């Protein structure tokens, strides 16, 4: 019955409010199936079984001797000698031993709680890592589609170079007309055949010059358009390789997650819910107070200190006498003397036993041992508090860093999108700055991935604080 109550309380303790339904379900599965956690729990149950052992009286001693030939005595012929003895420890010894065993079992339970909290942290951290990976795959796929759109746009501009050269040709034609008009005016003012010849020669030279410039512009635009296509294809190949690596990285991560749940490594994992920015609901010093009050490692050391205090009391009580009470039963048979049966009445004799602990060195050593172990636990607790405080400080620094990065990359993402829109408008108009378009697109991808990493780091750091404080924040 006690085991059933303990397991029921354990299952109730697994419920974690405030988390997504799928993550809460995974935590429950991990608590029920993880073999290491079950080993810690069974060690606690084994320690609990120590309590009734040390709280019981020593077994009674029965000694019996039977004579092969009856011993002739005045009371008759003695057939046997039977003794039954029960030893009793000094007053309070059994209660103190049960208290010491209970404290040691409590220490094992706190160790089990620490193992459970560590398991929950590993499940949460792996879950958030899966979320980060899934988001990176999604964002990379979106950026890959955008680059393919850029490739189609660059191909269109490469295949239609006249769109950029038409305005230049018309401009050039206008300049040629104006030059021709000016030449005619000067000819009419001078008059004669020589002026007409000069005018014709000038018109031919202008037409030849315009034709050469238009040809050079078309060739330049073609080369530029083809280089744009090649550059975007290089970016596409690199992004496809990155995407393949991200998809391959999901396999070992899912296997690690299933290993924590003690399932098949290829078991399907439900999609990760969307994570948003999060903040601490408590003050920083309040979290530190919760850590120093609720951390299982500190509670384990407190239970061990109380157990060693009980051991000191046990050492003192062992230096007291032990009492024994019993009975001695001697059966007699009648002895025949001068034809008459003599005696034969059985004898019952109460007995008392008392141990005399005169060798005090071992009892003093037992008490000194318990005192030194208690001092060691106190020093270990002080060191553990320092370590937990350091971990709390590091977690707070990591959380502040994650919050700053979240704000930064959210702002950088918005600015990059605005810059990219302006550059795309410019490129659609005059076909310039395509290399800058690709650079800003890569920056935008980096900012989006960094934002996802920062959000995942936020939740992982809060999970670290929950592990240290042994409570849901």
From TrEMBL:
Q: Does the keyword Nucleus apply?
A: no
List, alphabetically, the InterPro entries matched: OMP_efflux, TolC-like
Locate the region Disordered: 164-224
Family of the protein in this entry: Belongs to the outer membrane factor (OMF) (TC 1.B.17) family.
Keyword terms of this UniProt record: Cell outer membrane, Membrane, Transmembrane, Transmembrane beta strand, Transport
Chief subcellular location: membrane
The GO terms describing molecular function are: efflux transmembrane transporter activity; porin activity
One GO cellular component term of this record is: cell outer membrane
What ranges does the record list as Low complexity composition bias?
Answer: 169-190, 198-220
Subcellular localization(s) per the UniProt record: Cell outer membrane
The name this protein carries in UniProt is: Outer membrane protein
């Amino acid at each position: 019955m006690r085991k059933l109550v303990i397991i029921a309380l354990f299952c109730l303790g697994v419920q974690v409010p405030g988390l997504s339904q799928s993550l809460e379900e995974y935590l429950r599965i991990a608590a029920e199936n993880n073999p290491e956690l079950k080993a810690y729990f069974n060690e606690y149950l084994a320690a609990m079984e120590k309590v009734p052992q040390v709280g019981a009286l020593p077994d009674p001693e029965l000694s019996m001797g039977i004579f092969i030939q009856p011993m002739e005595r005045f009371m008759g012929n003695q057939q046997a000698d039977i003794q039954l003895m029960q030893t009793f420890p000094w007053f309070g010894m059994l209660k103190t031993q049960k208290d010491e065993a209970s404290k040691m079992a409590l220490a094992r339970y706190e160790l089990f709680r620490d193992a459970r909290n560590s398991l929950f942290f590993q499940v949460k951290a792996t879950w958030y890592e899966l979320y980060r990976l899934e988001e990176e795959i999604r964002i990379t796929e979106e950026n890959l589609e955008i680059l393919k759109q850029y490739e189609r746009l660059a191909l269109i501009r490469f295949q239609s170079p006249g769109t950029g050269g038409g305005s230049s040709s018309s401009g050039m034609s206008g300049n040629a007309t104006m030059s021709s008009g000016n030449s005619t005016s000067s000819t009419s003012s001078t008059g004669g055949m020589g002026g007409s010849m000069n005018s014709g020669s000038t018109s031919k030279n202008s037409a030849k010059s315009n034709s050469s410039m238009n040809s050079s512009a078309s060739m330049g635009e073609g080369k530029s358009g083809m280089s744009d296509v090649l550059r975007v294809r290089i970016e596409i190949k690199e992004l496809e390789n990155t995407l393949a690596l991200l998809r391959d990285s999901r396999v070992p991560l899912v296997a690690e997650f299933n290993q924590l749940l003690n399932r098949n490594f290829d078991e399907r994992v439900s999609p990760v819910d969307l994570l948003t920015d999060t903040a601490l609901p408590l003050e920083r010093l309040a979290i530190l107070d919760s850590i120093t009050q609720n951390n299982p490692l500190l509670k384990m050391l407190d239970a061990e200190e109380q157990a060693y205090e009980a051991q000191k009391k046990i050492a003192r009580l062992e230096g007291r006498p032990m009492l024994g009470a019993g009975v001695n039963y001697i059966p007699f048979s009648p002895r025949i003397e001068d034809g008459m049966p003599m005696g034969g009445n059985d004898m019952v004799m109460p007995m008392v036993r008392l141990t005399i602990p005169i060798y005090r060195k071992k009892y003093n050593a037992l008490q000194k041992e318990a005192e030194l172990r208690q001092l060691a636990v106190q020093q270990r607790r002080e060191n553990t508090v320092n370590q937990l405080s350091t971990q709390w400080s590091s977690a707070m620094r990591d959380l502040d860093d994650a919050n700053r990065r979240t704000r930064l990359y959210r702002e950088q993402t918005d600015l990059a999108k605005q810059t990219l829109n302006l550059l795309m408008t410019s490129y659609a108009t005059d076909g310039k700055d395509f290399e800058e378009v690709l650079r800003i697109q890569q920056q935008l991808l980096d900012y989006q991935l960094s934002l996802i990493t920062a959000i995942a780091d936020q939740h992982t750091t809060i999970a670290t604080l929950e592990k240290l404080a042994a409570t849901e924040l």
